[in-house]
Amino acid sequence: MTTQEAGRTIVPAAGTVLWRNRTGDHDRDQLEVAVVHRPRYDDWSLPKGKAEPGETLPACAARETVEETGFRTVLGRLAGVVSYRLTSGTRAGTRKVISYYAGRAIGGGFRANAEVDELRWLRPERAAAQLTYEADRAVLDAFTELPSATRTVLLVRHAKAGSRANWAAHDDLRPLSRSGATQADALRQLLPLFGADRVYAANRVRCVQTLQGLADDLGVPVGLEEALTEEGYHGDPDAAAARLLEIARAGGTPAICSQGGAIPSLIAGFADESGLHLDEIPCKKGSVWILSFAPDSDVLLAADYLPTALAAPIPPA
Prior knowledge:
This protein is α/β, with parallel strands linked by helices and 317 residues long. Helix content is 28%, strand content 32%. It contains 8 helices and 14 strands. It has helices spanning 57-69, 124-130, 134-144, 178-190, 205-218, 230-235, 237-249, 263-274, and strands at residues 3-5, 8-23, 29-38, 43-45, 48-50, 71-85, 95-108, 118-122, 151-157, 198-202, 222-225, 254-258, 288-293, 300-306. The strands form 2 sheets. Strands 1, 2, 3, 4, 5, 6, 7 and 8 form an 8-stranded mixed β-sheet that branches. A 6-stranded mixed β-sheet has the order 11-10-12-9-13-14.
């Protein structure tokens, strides 16, 4: 798959820093990461591969991880982006951009295959020494700067709805448009990659419809949240922030659908309190913010933006 960015051809790819906690000496959990050997290149790298047509980067990361390592994974924060110019083959001269996500191993097992003939689970410092490329070591260093087991909140802006001007009933009841339904279907596929297991929505029809398919697949109800509507947020910003943190503390990975008038301010508040610098906080309809909170506090450690669930967006290198 190739795409265009500012007139240049881009080859999008994705992978993971695949990790697990293994009980070591004195029954203490020890962090291990997976590195793989590729016989074609005779190198050691992090699992990765090119995105297929129409595939999102998270879906690519999860698929390539299974194909190369045999392990299923739950994705987390964006660990790093690597960009380099291809110098050989049919795509020589194009730029390859690889997005690496933190990936917690949740099951499976390695079997040698055509792409990878060996996998090693190593402590991060030994993995860094094993890796062939400095760029991979930089991604691993960025991953280890934060706790591996962060708490993820998937904050979604509702998908596209019909025109407000053409809607005669109360605006709270305005449903998704046809293109909005397509976005909702894409979110239904995307959010489980990050382990979504609970569903909440601002008490507006378009917000509920955005995540209803996900809730149906999970067999869970959609919790209605008046505090996380635009009006609820502006009426009491502190209560809205407190409610989102309450949902986050309950465990698992909640998916929460809110509105464009609330999401950027909510994220800005968490970032300011946590000392996390964000250059901007975009909020397109159908977009997702992957919020990574500390495992034992309300500190926001990372915030990663997916502008769409429909294609493979290319993040800045």
